[in-house]
Amino acid sequence: MKQIKGGVTAAKGFKAASTAAGIKYKDRTDMAMIYSEVPCAVAGTFTTNIVKAAPVKWDQHVVYDSKKAQAVIVNAGIANACTGEEGMGYCKATAEKVNKLLQIPTDEVLVASTGVIGMQLPIDRICAGVETMVPQLNGDIESGHNAALAIMTTDTHEKEVAVEIELSGKTVTIGGMCKGSGMIHPNMCTMLSFVTTDAAISQELLLEALKADVEDTYNMISVDGDTSTNDTCLLLANGMAENTKITEKNADYETFTKALRFVNETLAKQMAGDGEGATALFEVKVIGAETKEQAKILSKSVITSSLTKAAIYGHDANWGRILCAMGYSGAQFDPEKVDLFFESAAGKMQIIKDGVAVDYSEEEATKILSEPAVTAIADIKMGAAQATAWGCDLTYDYVKINADYRS
Length: 407
Hints:
Blueprint: E1 2-4, E2 14-19, E3 31-46, H1 54-66, E4 68-78, H2 84-102, E5 109-116, H3 123-133, H4 141-150, E6 159-167, E7 170-179, E8 192-197, H5 203-216, E9 232-237, H6 251-273, E10 281-289, H7 292-303, H8 306-313, H9 319-327, E11 339-344, E12 347-353, E13 356-357, H10 362-369, E14 373-379, E15 385-392, H11 396-403
Parallel strand pairs: 4-5, 8-9, 10-14
Antiparallel strand pairs: 1-6, 2-3, 3-4, 3-9, 6-7, 7-8, 10-15, 11-12, 11-14, 12-13
Keywords: Acyltransferase, Amino-acid biosynthesis, Arginine biosynthesis, Autocatalytic cleavage, Cytoplasm, Multifunctional enzyme, Transferase
Pathway: Amino-acid biosynthesis; L-arginine biosynthesis; N(2)-acetyl-L-ornithine from L-glutamate: step 1/4; Amino-acid biosynthesis; L-arginine biosynthesis; L-ornithine and N-acetyl-L-glutamate from L-glutamate and N(2)-acetyl-L-ornithine (cyclic): step 1/1
Active site: 190 (nucleophile)
């Protein structure tokens, strides 16, 4: 596997475009489009929030009923959530506009929205945006990059990644972009992720691969514990690499899933590290667990602890907060057997051994915790299973951003 420059346009046959439609923002692009030259097998995972946005409901129909897609329309600024039948009608109207311009069946057009909940989309601006983007569709790296910029809300930077692998003697590319900074606590933040590949693979295996991968990537991040109404991850495969089509779990499938994991994990970590107001990516590894599920519960409990997140912001080695968060997670372990370490680019040090503090330097610990990426490693000494979760620190700016988000 080789990481390359690019995002959603890195794979053969995929094009992108973006535009300033004036949906909410007045000084930037706020719509993006992804298009494949040929129809794609499509997979998707979506929010488990009972309150689901109209685009989520629309895309579930495309993924599970049509099982094919050729275009994605994304807007930032308004979420099209809690908008009733009118909101669903706007999804249809968007797809119909794409159908008119590109002759793609409406049930093969995916839509996604992110932004303020409860507001109706200005559908005239959405349709005008589609009209503007279609002639601009391009497969170059810059077009994909600009699409990643257009879907941001409170994100501080675009998020994209691409890799190349070899399947049955053919070069296959997987690329993706995502947005997410606040309202991040997926159960599949406001999280949108779009991954494209020119691999030839059956829709059934594509869906199985994505669902399995999401459990260890997007579902292991949290910024603020809020599960969005719009969480969506879409994976499109157009087969244009012309590899032998993957229809069974063979060596090519394993290679593909490993590359997909890298792409999704990279995007997930970019979202966690760009949490609203955040100054650091906070990674928690639980090792020595009896089961993977136990390790997942423990690691996610730590990254969602407000007290722990605040300590990371303060570069304070307040290990009691970590042990406390593990203790109320619901997973069983012996706190008197836990070893805890802090690690970053500045070094690694043990903080507690068998549940008791060791003689460590607070000054050195602060130095380690002052890096932009910090890891806590908890060994619970019960087995060989492990899991990793990603979050961020909790700062004053998180409250500032969310206190007046609608205005």
